[in-house]
């Protein structure tokens, strides 16, 4: 693999989780970002993690693998389970693969190759623009026009997009997760609970502050705060 693939794992049975993690660590070019044994913890933490796909168990207490897959709908999903009866349901939601336990290294490698193909296909299909619902109707936004995006002041469900040249536009009822699934991953990064920025605007950065190349009305550089939970993924963009 040319690019390191990053995954998160979920299995409520610790022996199975440890074994799956061990297998993953034997595949060159594959990195396990986090291994979870509690689906609720995964839901609370995944937004701050930088990963490409997920390997999920299905039968778990509280939430099952399909519940998690719905939340992670923008990520390729591989299911890992001891049960065969869920296979049709898994492929109904476009799972990349469905592995039966006990999993062998060669079977896992097959699944990873499928994931890699899905991700590569997505990257080649990237459009330079997307259509959004705004307060003035539907609008086409070219990604290279966007400088940064913030939660709207009046309604947090809406997002204000600040464009090159100083203008802005209000997107209606769209989440940051949905935006990140649309925006080119290599060009945008979430830096806090309230903001996404385009990498092109970064001029300097420290542990907590990003200095942009955009000037405010007083001709001073606009500064952005880098949230603690987002530092790792931000810094990895510049490695």
UniProtKB/TrEMBL annotation:
Gene3D superfamilies: 3.40.50.2300, LytTr DNA-binding domain (2.40.50.1020). One of its GO terms (molecular function) is transcription cis-regulatory region binding. Signal peptide: none annotated. One of its GO terms (biological process) is regulation of DNA-templated transcription. It comes from the Bacteria. The keyword Cytoplasm does not apply. This is DNA-binding response regulator. It comes from Sphingobacterium puteale. The lineage of its organism: Bacteria, Pseudomonadati, Bacteroidota, Sphingobacteriia, Sphingobacteriales.
């Amino acid at each position: 693999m040319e690019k390191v693939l990053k995954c998160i794992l979920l299995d409520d049975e610790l022996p199975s989780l440890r074994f799956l993690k061990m297998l993953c660590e034997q595949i060159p070019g594959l990195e396990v970002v986090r291994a979870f044994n509690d689906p609720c913890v995964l839901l609370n933490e995944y937004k701050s993690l930088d990963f490409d796909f997920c390997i999920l168990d299905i039968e778990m207490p509280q939430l099952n693998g399909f519940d998690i897959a719905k939340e992670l709908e923008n990520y390729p999903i591989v299911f890992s389970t001891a049960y065969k009866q869920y296979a049709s349901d898994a492929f109904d939601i476009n799972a990349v693969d469905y592995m039966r336990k006990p999993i062998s290294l060669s079977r896992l490698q097959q699944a990873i190759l499928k994931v890699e193909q899905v991700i590569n296909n997505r990257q080649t299909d990237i459009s330079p623009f997307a259509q959004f619902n705004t307060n003035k109707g539907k609008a086409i936004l070219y990604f290279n026009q966007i400088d940064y995006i913030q939660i709207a002041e009046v309604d947090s469900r809406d997002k204000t997009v600040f464009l090159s040249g100083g203008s802005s536009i209000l997107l209606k009822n769209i989440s940051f997760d949905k935006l990140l699934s649309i925006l080119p991953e290599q060009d945008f990064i979430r830096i806090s609970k309230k903001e996404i920025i385009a990498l092109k605007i970064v001029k300097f950065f420290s542990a907590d502050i990003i200095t942009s190349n955009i000037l405010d009305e007083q001709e001073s550089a606009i500064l952005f705060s880098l949230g603690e939970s987002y530092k790792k993924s931000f810094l990895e963009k510049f490695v």
